[in-house]
Amino acid sequence: MRYFIKLTAIVLIIGTLLPGSACKTTKNPTKMTDQNSALFPKGDRLPDSYFTGNAFLTPLIAKDKNNDFMMGSVTFEAGARTFWHSHPRGQVLIVTEGNGFYQEKGKTAQPIKKGDVVNIPENTEHWHGAAAKTKMVHIAITNYEGETNVVWLKSVSEEDYNAVNKQ
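== Cupin domain-containing protein ==
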């Protein structure tokens, strides 16, 4: 639990230091818009070739000489999700807002919500995204193997996604 609290504090500090961050003060916090209450800005729309529905990315940390990973905030509007995919060196998801699902190939989908941390092992086929009626935002920390951090596969079928939302 201490690790999670420290990580949350670090993420909040980073959010206040990034240019264009949505972590801004307001004179009347009860009238904050959704964008102003978000930890990070919504970002740029992600391609339909890897995502179903409307998903957006705000890059936070790029791979460089010090970090063999990338970190970004991903916003999934209601019903949006990734295609099936895997990561050669694994991935960590930290849900910062909303509700969604995470599913590994051959296993039952797991509901995920704000505050959940998902540690995805290397080369594990999976997908993640928002529930059908709510958006979901997570921070994704994705490790690299060489220059590769993801292997994209096929889309999650509407039938399979709808079955998950009926759980």
